[in-house]
Predict the 3D structure of the following.
Amino acid sequence: MQFTAEQIAALVGGTVEGDGNATVSTFAKIEEGRPGALSFLANPKYDHYIYQTGSSVVLVKRDFSVEHPVKATLIRVDDPYATIAQLLDIAAEALDCLAYPECGPDGKWNADSSALPVGAIFHVLKCVFLIFCDF
């Protein structure tokens, strides 16, 4: 699935700076960014990566000051950490409901099913991502 910067901004209450039609379909650390990826910048020690990242879209704090030209489209949010966690949770739920017909009408995985939801694995990966991305 692909999402535009405008769609993501609307979902998380952010403001787009750059190409609102820039699309993403995956996540990447800002230093490992590539086209089609969504990254975030919250820790000032990573500020320099914003100028060289290959990511198409980057979540930044609303008050982040751009000192040089940036290729990526920025989405300004109150808290990039919380926003990326929110988006990862949304992605996990979407994966569960796409991959498993056991999802109920509320979009939640049916715990009575014997199938392991993809989102459960995705949630573990999110936890690992948050731990090892120097938060």
